[in-house]
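Note to self: keep these together.
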Amino acid sequence: MDTTSSLLLFFFFLFVIIIIIILNKIYGLRSSSASKTKRIENVSTHRHGPRFLQGSLGWPIIGETIAFVSSAYSDHPESFMDKRRLMYGRVFKSHIFGTATIVSTDAEVNKAVLQSDSTAFVPFYPKTVRELMGKSSILLINGSLHRRFHGLVGSFLKSPLLKAQIVRDMHTFLLESMDLWSEDKPILLQDVSKTVAFKVLAKALISVEKGEELEELKEEFERFITGLMSLPINFPGTQLHRSLQAKKKMVKQVEKIIEDKVRRAKNKEKDGVIAKDVVDVLLKDSSENLTHNLIANNMIDMMIPGHDSVPVLITLAVKFLSDSPTALHFLTEENMELKSLKELTGEQLYWNDYLSLPFTQKVITETLRMGNVIIGVMRKSMKDVEIKGYVIPKGWCFLAYLRSVHLDKLYYDSPYKFNPWRWQERDMNTSSFSPFGGGQRLCPGLDLARLEASIFLHHLVTRFRWVAEEDTIINFPTVHMKNKLPVWIKRR
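Structure:
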C-alpha cells in the first residue's frame, strides 16, 4: 500500500472513531464528564491518603482518542502511554473512545483489578462488541453462571484427553497444508496458521472438522468478525447488521449440532458418554441456565481466539525467529533432536513432549511478551475502588494496558530486544507478565495456545528452511502482519 493509500486509510479510521464516539454520546453510553471529574477531584491528596489522579480528559466529546489512535498506528504504539506516564505517573486519567478512562501501566494495579470480582469491576467492551456478543456471552456475564461456564470449559481445555486430540488434529491439518507448499512462490504464513487454528478450534468446540459444514461455518464467521470494529448502527446494509445476521446463521447451525447430539445421546447413560468437545461438556451439566441457545452463542464467541490470538502468536514467533538466526538455530536443534529421538524409539510425539521443550517454550513466552497479542483489557468500576493509593471512581472505564508493562525497562532489560534467554531464570508467574489477562477471566485456552504454537513450530523447523520477506507488524485495531508474512521455503 502506497503512502497516499495509507494516509487515506488512517484518516478513514479517525473519521469512523469520531462517529462512534458521537453515537455513543447520543445513545447515552457516556456519562457526564463534569460529574466524574468532580468526583475524582474530591479525592483526598494528603500524604498517606488516596492519590489525586492526574491526567487530561482532552477535547470535548472526542477526548484524547485521536492521539491514542495516532500512536496505535505508529511504529511505537505505546508512545501515547509513555508520554503521559512521564507527565502523570503510571496510572492516569484520560478520555478515549467516548469514555472517561483510568489508564494503568502499573503491573501491580493491573493485577489487582483483573483479580477483582464483579462487585468491584465488570467487563467493559464497546457497544458494537456488546451487541455482537449478546448479554449471555461468557465475555460479559458475571457471578455464578460465569464461574460455572468458565470452570467447565477451562477444565476440558486443560484435559490430557483434549491435548492428545489437538496433537493428532494439528498433525493432520499441518500435513494436509504443508504437503501442498510450493518452493516457487511464497507461503503466506499468517493465512496458513489462521486456517489450521480455526479447524482445530472448530473440532474442539463442536466437532466440525471438514466438508461443507466447516466451510459454511468459516464463511459466516468471517462476516461476523468483520463487524467487531464497525459502527454501532444496526439496520439493513450496515456492517453491524450483516455481522448480526451471520451470527444468527451460525447459532442455528450450532443449535442443530446440539440437537443431533442430544438425540443420539437419548438412549445412552448420560454419565457414560465421554465428552469429545466443549458442547458435550456443557450438555452434561445439569444447570438449567445452560440453555442450548446460550451454549450455541458462546461457541461462536469462543471461535474468536482461533481466528486471531493463536494464529498471530504463531506468525509473530516465526517473524521474530526469522529476525534472530541464533534463536532459530537453538530452536531448530532442540526440535530436530526430539524428532530423531522419537524416530529412533519408534514412539509418537505426545502433547507433553512439545510442552517440555525448554527453549521452544522460552521463544513462545518471549513472543507473547513482545508481540502483545492482547494489548490491553478493559473493565468498568462498580464502585469507588482504591488500589495502591489510587482511586478508580465508580462508573469509570479502567484500561489495563498490558503492552506498556511488557515493554517497560523497569521490568525488563532491553525490552524491545527479542531475547528468549531472559526466561532462563525468570519467573512467568509475576504481575509484570500477563499476556492472556488474569484473575477469574483468565483465558481458559492459554495452555492450548502454547501447545498449538509448539506443534506448528516443530513441524515447520523440522521439515523446512525458510527466508521471510520484510514485513511490518500492525498493532491496531488488532495485531497482524501487514503482508501476512510471506516466507520462501526449502524442504529439508
